Amino acid sequence: MKQHRGLAQRILAALLTMSAVIALSACSLRSQSSATPSTTSSTLSGPIPVVATIRPWGSLAQELGGNQVKVTTIISDPNLAIQEYEPKTTDITTIGKSRIEIVNGAGYDDWATKSVPKDATLVSAADAVGASEGDNPYLWFSKDVRNSVATEVTEAYIKALPNQKAYFNARLKAWKKSETTLETLIQTVASQSKKKLTYAQERPIAYYLMADLGFSDKTPKKFAQALSGNEEPTVDEVDEFVNLLGKSKHPSIFLEDSTRQSTETQEKLVTTAKGNAVPMTDVTEEMPTQETTLNEWISTITTNIAKALELRTKIQSEDSDAESTQATVSDSASPSTSGSDATPSSTQ
Predict the structure, then answer these.
(1) According to the UniProt record, where is the region Disordered (predicted)?
(2) Which domain holds residue 151?
(3) Which end of the chain has fewer beta carbons closer than 10 Å to its terminal beta carbon, N or C?
C-alpha cells in the first residue's frame, strides 16, 4: 500500500512539474507575440490572414504566428459535431480571403478545401503525414502530425512574410520546446506501469494519444467500426461493450466524450463503468474553451488519465487491504481448541 502511495506521489509530482513547464512555454510564446517585429513584407500590409477549420489547428497557428497573423477558426464551438458540419456562406467568404488555410484532412473537413484562393497556401495535417480518408481523423493527438504541421505552417508564414523569417523561426523553436515537454510527460506516464495497460473509448478520439502512451485498444471492433462510419451501433454491439466494462478483467480505463448530447448508449456505458469501478476520464473531440493552446490541452488530458490510473491503483490496494483485514478477523474469530464449545482435534 505504501509503495502504491509513494508511486502515486512521484507520478503526480512529475505531472505537475511538466504541466507547469508547458504553461510557461505557452506564456513565452504569448510574450513574444506582443513584441513588435522589425520589418514587414512588401507583399502584405498587416498580419497574414490565416483560416483554420478547427480549434486545435487554429490555436497552433496562432502560437506559431504571434502578432504577424490574424487567425480565424471556422468551427470554434466545442459542442458541434464537426464531421457533420455544413459551412455557412460567411465561412466560404472568410476562406476566400485567406492567405493560408489549415485543414485537418482525412475526410474530416473536405468542404474547406473547395474554396481555397489560388494564391493561398493550403496546409493539410493529413497530407503532412500521408493519412487519407478512412484513417483515424483525430490527427492533432499524434506527436508526429503536430510536429509536421508546425513545420509546414512556419514555412508558409515565411513564404508570405519572408522578412519575418527570424521571428517565425524563433516562435517555432519556442513551440518545439513545449512539444518536447509534452512528449516527456507522455513518456513519463507511459513508463509508470509494469504491466500492459488497456483502454476502451466511447468514440475513437484518442487513438493516437493512447498509442503514444502505450495503451492497447480493447474497444469492441464492431462498435468502433460503426462509429467510425458515422453509424449507430446495434443493440448487440452495445451489449458487447457493456459486458466488457462489467467484467472483472475490464479495460484499465474508459474514455468518454461528455460534450455530445447524452444518448441511451452513452448512459449504459457510463453507468456500467461506474458500477464496476472502471477508471474514467473525459476526452472531447474539440478543444474546450478554457484551453488556450493545443499542447496545454493534451497535457491536461494526459494528466487526467494518469490521475484516473492512480485512482485504480488505490481501489485495488484498498480491496487487497480489505481482504487481508477480513482474513485476520476470520482467523481471530476462529474457535479456540479449549473451552466447552471447542471441537476436538481428533477422535478416539
Answers:
(1) 316-348
(2) 14-34+42-79+88-188
(3) C
Confirm if 205 and 188 have CB atoms less than 8 A apart. Answer: no
- Rounded to whole angstroms, the Cα distance separating 68 from 29 reads 13
The verdict on 264 and 149 lying in the same domain is no
For residue 171, give the 3-state DSSP assignment: helix
The total number of structural domains that make up the chain:
2
Please, where are the H alpha helices in the chain? Answer: 2-33, 55-65, 89-96, 125-129, 143-160, 165-190, 207-212, 221-228, 235-246, 264-275, 294-333
If phi over 0 gives left and psi between -120 and 50 gives alpha, with beta otherwise, what is residue 260?
beta
Residue 277, domain CATH: 3.40.50.1980
Please indicate, yes or no, whether residues 146 and 246 belong to a single structural domain of this protein.
no
In a domain, 340, yes or no: no
177 and 208 co-located in one domain: no
Distance separating alpha carbons of residues 26 and 28, to the nearest angstrom: 5
Residue 74: inside a domain, yes or no?
Answer: yes
Q: Is 102 helix (H, G, I), strand (E, B) or coil?
A: strand
Are 179 and 206 contained in the same domain?
Answer: no
Same domain, 180 and 261: no
Give which of 204, 139, 160, 206 is closest to 68, Cα–Cα.
Answer: 160
DSSP track, 272-298: HHHHTT--EEE--SS--TT--SHHHHH
Q: Are residues 234 and 156 in the same domain?
A: no
State whether 165 and 184 are in the same domain: yes
Residue 153 one-letter amino acid: V
Domain assignment present for 330: no
What is the reported pTM?
0.78
